[in-house]
Amino acid sequence: MRVLGVETSCDETGVALYDSDRGILAQKLHSQTALHKEYGGVVPELASRDHIRRLAKLVAIVLGQAGESPDAIAYTAGPGLIGSLLVGAALSQGLAVSLDIPVFGVHHLEAHLLAPLMEIRSPDFPFVALLVSGGHTLLVDVKELGRYRSIGTTLDDAAGEAFDKVATLLGLPYPGGPALAKLAEAGRPGRFSLPRPLTTRPGLDFSFSGLKTAVLYARNALASNDQSSRADLARDFEQAMVETLVCKCERALTATGHDRLVVAGGVAANRRLREALTDHCRETGVSVYFPSVELCTDNGVMVAFAGAKRLIEGLPVRPLSVRARWPIDELS
Ligand code: KG4
Ligand code: ZN
Fold first, then answer.
1. N or C: which end of the chain has fewer CB within 10 A?
2. What distance in angstroms lies between residue 139's CA and the mean position of ligand 1's atoms?
3. Ligand 1 pocket mutation pick from 84, 267, 301, 326 by most atoms within 8 angstroms of CB
4. Residue 192 pLDDT > 90
């Protein structure tokens, strides 16, 4: 079965043709980073206009490269920016009518958390999923495909958002997460004492705004705002984020009794997070799974794959209207 995946929830236009037997047949991804750079963040109106400009061309390229047509189309129906989502939904539904094939909406976070199932070493159900992206920070009890219970979330900023905002504080260009991780490579750990939010009291929720403020104060108190001080601060911020995420994963594994952990979303591309979770899970007898780094951030492949999984397993598939907010628990 071949599924065309269409991702337009934020600032990436992603298209892929995925075959359930042969894997990825073709894929294209256009990032709008350059478009939003001067504003320091995604401008929703510009994002949807750019999806309109790119999407039809990307679909034509992907289908041309694959030389095969899809049996069904899956598009991201939410959560995300409403105008951007509408572009993907409208194009997908129009294309499906012209090809006379089924079309349906996919939950963006389900697509993220299923991405590690595409790897050769892939997790069985059940597992705990840590979803860390620019818009979301969630711990999910994944009982089986399509049965999700959110057990922890952020009270303020998402993990990726915190990376991006701290990067801005340190004078780094948008998008900040990867730039901050790069700067931190040159930093020495242990110079700044930063909080590990909500780790000293029980619970699975996150809060990153206090950590962000602590970085702001530390930056303002620097005698000199030189590159090596900023690198040290980036390193300690990254370490605080990583330790906080590891602590909450450990608690979620204990609370659910699961011995598998899946980590997905843009922040799962972070090298130190991957290393820390790999080490921690090795010590505690937990199996940990990540998508390949390219499939951590938004892309069409994960949407096509999630769509194919749903079709093959006989889960409900419908041409959904788009939703800016859409709790993952509602899929169950
Ligand atoms: O999943 P994603 O592409 O988009 C959303 O659904 O939000 O995640 C993007 C987020 C951004 O905040 C970006 O800064 C962050 O993931 N990110 C990283 C890294 N690569 C991407 N954060 C930390 N370290 C990275 N290497
Ligand atoms: Zn995403």
1. C
2. 16
3. 267
4. yes
Output the six-digit token pair for 283.
């010590």
Tally the residues of the chain.
332
Residues whose CB is less than 8 angstroms from the CB of residue 68 and which lie 6 or more positions away in sequence, other chains included: 2, 17, 19, 25
* pTM for the predicted model, two decimal places: 0.96
Q: Whose CA is nearest to atom 23 of ligand 1?
A: 177
Q: Could you tell me whether strands 137-144 and 147-153 are parallel, antiparallel, or unpaired per DSSP bridges?
A: antiparallel
Asked if residues 307 and 74 have their Cβ atoms less than 8 Å apart, the reply is: yes
Q: How does pLDDT run across 34-88, given as a tens digit for each residue?
A: 999 999 899 999 999 999 999 999 999 999 999 999 999 999 999 999 999 999 9
Distance (Å, whole) CA 34 – CA 328: 31
Q: Check whether the bond before 197 is cis (ω within 30° of 0).
A: no
Tokens (6 digits) for 287: 């199996």
Closest residue CA from atom 7 of ligand 1? 134
Please give the Cα distance from 184 to 27 (Å, whole number). Answer: 32
Sheet containing 147-153: give its strands across.
147-153, 137-144, 127-132, 260-264, 287-289
